[in-house]
Design brief:
By secondary structure, the chain is an all-alpha fold. About 65% of the residues lie in helices and about 0% in strands.
C-alpha cells in the first residue's frame, strides 16, 4: 500500500502542477467548458445550445425551438460560448457547484474538479492489477504509475474538462470486462450474470451522463462476451444476462438526457449540434489549406493522434510540424509497438495471460469510430482513445514485463512517461509542441 500512496501523491502533484502552470486555453476547449459551467449557474439549470454566427446551419425545427426557448437562433457578439452545451451534465453540475461556491473567479478551483477523478482512476488501475494478477504484485503499482504519469491524462486531471471524469468510468468498465478472462476469477453465472451486467450498466449510465463517447465501449462489451463464450469462460445464456442488463441499466440512466436531446435537437446523440460547434474544419478544407493529398491527410492524422495520445494535448489546428521533436515521436512509437512485440513473444512461449488478449483489442475497437470521425471533421486528437486508458496501460505494462527478465521491466513505461510529463510540464502544456 505504501507504493500506492506514493503514486497517488505523485499523481496529485503532477496534475496540480499542470493546473497551476498551464495557461488558460492550453487545454482543449477550456474557455468553452468554463462558459458552459457559468451558464448553468446563471440559468440555474440545463443550457440549450445556440450557435455563434457563421456556424453550420441547423435544421429548421431546431432553429424554431431555439427561438422559442432562448429568444435567439444565434449568439450575439460578445456572448459567452455555448459550444459545450451539448455535453451531458454530470461533470458540469459538479463544476457548477464549485463555481458558485468560489464566486466563479477561480480558474484553479475549477480545474481541480477533475483531480479526484484522476486520482480515482489511478486507484482503479492499482485495484485492477491486484485483482487480475494476484501472483504478479509488481503489475499493480506499474499500472497505477502508468495512469498517473501519462502526460495527457495527468494534464486533463488538472483541466476544466469532462475527460478525466469520463476516463474514470471507462476504467471501471474495462476492469470489470477484463475480469471475464482472469482464470482465478469465477465468471458471472446465472443470477450473478445479471448482477455483473447491472453493475456494468451503472458504470455505463454514469459514464454516458458525463460524455456520450462512452457508448463506444458497448461494442467492446459485445467483443468481450463473444471471446468469453469462445474461451468457454461463460455460457451464451449468461452473456445475454450480462450484456442485456448492462444495456438496459446503462441506457435507462442515460435516457433522460438522450430524450432531452431528441426533443430539443431531433437527434438523441446531438451529433448535428456538435458539427455546429467550434471551428470544426472538414478534411477537404484542411487538405486545401496545407496542400495535403488524401495520403498526406491520413499520415498526418495518424502521427498527430499518436503524439497527442502519448505526450501532448493539441486541440488547435497545427502548422505543418506539429508532433514536437523527432525523439519524442520515436519514444511514442516505442511505447506503442514494443509492448505488442513482448506480448507476441509471450504468446509464442504460451506464457501470456488471457487478459492481455482481450485488452489488446479494446483500443482497436475504438478505431472505426475514430476513423469515421476524422474523415468528417479534422479532430486528430489522440485523447479520444483515452476511454481505453486502462487497457492500454495493461498492454504496455504487460508487454514490457514480457520483454524483460526482471520484474522491474514492468515499470519502464512509467519511467518513460515520467520524463515525457516533465518535458510537457516545463513547456506549459501542449504549447511545448508548437
Amino acid at each position: 500500500m505504501k507504493s500506492l500512496y506514493a503514486i497517488l501523491a505523485a499523481a496529485f502533484l503532477l496534475s496540480v502542477s499542470f493546473a497551476v502552470k498551464v495557461p488558460l486555453d492550453h487545454n482543449p476547449d477550456e474557455s468553452s467548458h468554463r462558459d458552459y459551467i457559468r451558464l448553468m449557474v446563471e440559468q440555474k439549470g440545463l443550457v440549450m445550445f445556440v450557435p455563434s454566427k457563421g456556424r453550420k446551419p441547423l435544421p429548421a425545427p431546431v432553429i424554431e425551438k431555439m427561438q422559442a426557448r432562448e429568444g435567439m437562433t444565434e449568439l450575439p457578439e460578445g456572448a459567452i460560448s455555448r459550444d459545450e452545451a451539448h455535453q451531458p451534465p454530470l461533470y458540469y453540475a459538479l463544476a457548477a457547484l464549485v463555481f458558485a461556491i468560489t464566486g466563479g473567479g477561480s480558474l484553479l478551483a475549477l480545474r481541480l474538479v477533475a483531480l479526484p477523478f484522476q486520482l480515482a482512476t489511478v486507484w482503479i488501475a492499482w485495484k485492477a492489477g491486484r485483482d487480475l494478477f494476484p501472483k504478479r504484485p509488481e503489475l499493480a503499482p506499474a499500472l497505477a504509475a502508468f495512469v498517473a504519469l501519462l502526460p495527457t491524462q495527468a494534464q486533463l486531471g488538472g483541466a476544466i474538462s469532462n475527460d478525466a471524469t469520463t476516463h474514470f468510468f471507462c476504467a471501471l468498465i474495462v476492469w470489470r470486462m477484463a475480469r471475464f478472462f482472469a482464470p482465478h476469477i469465477a465468471p458471472p453465472h446465472r443470477a450473478h450474470a445479471w448482477g455483473e451486467g447491472a453493475l456494468l450498466g451503472l458504470f455505463f449510465g454514469l459514464g454516458l451522463l458525463t460524455k456520450l463517447t462512452v457508448l463506444q465501449l458497448y461494442p467492446v462489451l459485445f467483443v468481450a462476451c463473444t471471446l468469453a463464450i469462445k474461451q468457454k469462460r461463460i455460457t451464451f445464456a449468461d452473456t445475454v444476462g450480462v450484456f442485456g442488463a448492462a444495456v438496459l441499466v446503462g441506457l435507462a440512466l442515460a435516457a433522460p438526457w438522450l430524450a432531452r436531446n431528441q426533443m430539443l435537437y431531433g437527434d438523441f446523440l446531438a451529433q448535428t449540434i456538435y458539427k455546429a460547434t467550434g471551428p470544426n474544419f472538414s478534411p477537404s478544407a484542411i487538405s486545401q489549406a496545407f496542400g495535403w493529398s488524401g495520403e498526406d491527410y491520413a499520415r498526418n492524422v495518424g502521427l498527430r493522434s499518436l503524439a497527442s495520445f502519448w505526450y501532448f494535448l493539441a486541440p488547435d489546428l497545427p502548422p505543418k510540424q506539429f508532433v514536437g521533436p523527432p525523439i519524442l515521436l520515436l519514444l511514442a512509437l516505442g511505447l506503442s509497438l514494443l509492448p505488442l512485440l513482448g506480448l507476441y513473444k509471450a504468446s509464442k512461449e504460451k506464457s501470456v495471460e488471457p487478459v492481455f488478449g482481450f485488452t489488446t483489442l479494446v483500443p482497436l475497437c475504438l478505431v472505426p469510430f475514430f476513423t469515421k470521425f476524422v474523415y468528417e471533421v479534422f479532430q486528430a486528437q489522440g485523447r479520444y482513445f483515452l476511454p481505453s486508458l486502462l487497457a492500454v496501460a495493461l498492454v504496455s505494462v504487460g508487454g514490457f514485463a514480457a520483454l524483460g527478465k526482471s520484474k522491474w521491466a514492468a515499470f519502464v513505461p512509467a519511467a518513460l512517461l515520467f520524463l515525457l510529463s516533465l518535458w510537457q510540464l516545463v513547456g506549459g502544456g501542449y504549447a511545448a509542441s508548437r
